[in-house]
Design goal:
This protein has about 240 residues and is α/β, with parallel strands linked by helices. It has a domain of about 170 residues: P-loop containing nucleotide triphosphate hydrolases (Rossmann fold), CATH 3.40.50. Helices cover about 45% and strands about 15% of the residues. The chain contains 11 helices and 8 strands. The strands form 2 sheets. A 5-stranded parallel β-sheet has the order 2-3-1-4-8. The protein has a 3-stranded antiparallel β-sheet with strand order 6-5-7, with no helix packed on it. β5 and β6 form a beta hairpin. The protein starts with a strand and ends in an 11-residue tail after the last helix. The relative contact order is 0.19. The structure holds adenosine monophosphate. Adenosine monophosphate binds next to α2 and α3.
């Protein structure tokens, strides 16, 4: 049975980091709409041209455009055994479209990462991404912890721990746009919690914990959801 997983949470909640871990654990691809759109901007495609200013302002790309992007991506063979969706759906209209796209493809597991706004602001202010490989650093790597750690982390050194590339701030990670993105989340994405809440495959996860604990809680929630939906979920994770 496929693991079709949706990760919901405000910007900075750790969706991307946790999605990478879960993809590795369950051997399924990560589908991040933010990554797809940023790659389109980088490549200078027609889609990229259409969405560049919207992303820069922290607003949402239209439902019509993003649903088409996801429909196309989820039609690819590599998602047949499941996927982790990071950054989609972000509106109730997108959630309804996802149900329709996934009809007949097994249960949808929904996890919500909850993190207080103060912590989100801190994490997003310190977040840096690698210009070359796209890896993201921040959260637990913030400079204020360097002293405790006794060594320089990637954020202070300005270099990617994975490939050595230069670390930069995402253009939409500046203070004004961060505030707008959090407001967009509250107004347009938080209502998704009510949309999904009554499903047996829905869970709320405390995203303020250490990353390993968040991964452990996510894994338990996923296994419970798969079991609740009749799948032989237990033992599926690669560990
Ligand atoms: P993210 O990397 O998920 O924070 O996404 C970066 C930006 O891409 C967002 O601020 C939006 O402008 C756009 N975006 C990503 N996913 C969606 C979506 N599902 N609906 C609308 N806009 C999106």
């Amino acid at each position: 049975m496929a693991l079709n997983l949706v990760m919901i949470g405000p910007p900075g909640a750790g969706k991307g980091t946790q999605a990478i871990r879960l993809c590795r654990q369950y051997d399924i691809p990560k589908v991040s709409t933010g990554d797809i759109l940023r790659e389109a901007v980088h490549a200078g495609s027609a889609l990229g041209g259409d969405v560049k200013d919207i992303i820069g302002a922290g607003r949402l790309v239209s439902d019509e455009v993003i649903i088409a992007v996801v429909r196309e991506r989820l039609a690819k063979d590599d998602t047949a055994r499941g996927f982790v969706l990071d950054g989609f759906p972000r509106t109730v209209t997108q959630a309804r479209a996802l149900d329709e796209i996934l009809e007949g493809r097994g249960p949808l597991v929904i996890v919500v990462l909850e993190v207080p706004e103060r912590e989100l602001l801190r994490r997003l202010t310190w977040r840096r991404v690698c210009e070359d490989c796209g890896a993201s650093f921040g959260g637990v790597d913030v400079p204020e912890l360097a002293e405790q750690r006794g060594s320089e982390g990637p954020v202070e050194s300005g270099r990617c721990r994975k490939c050595g590339g230069p670390l930069v701030q995402r253009p939409d990670d500046n203070a004004a746009v961060i505030r707008d993105r959090l407001t967009v989340f509250t107004n347009q994405t938080a209502p998704l919690v009510d949309f999904y809440r009554d499903r047996p495959t829905f869970s709320l996860i405390n995203g303020l914990q250490a990353p390993d604990q968040v991964t452990a809680d996510l894994t338990s929630a996923i296994e419970a959801a798969l079991a609740a939906s009749g799948a032989t979920g237990r033992g599926r994770a690669r560990a």
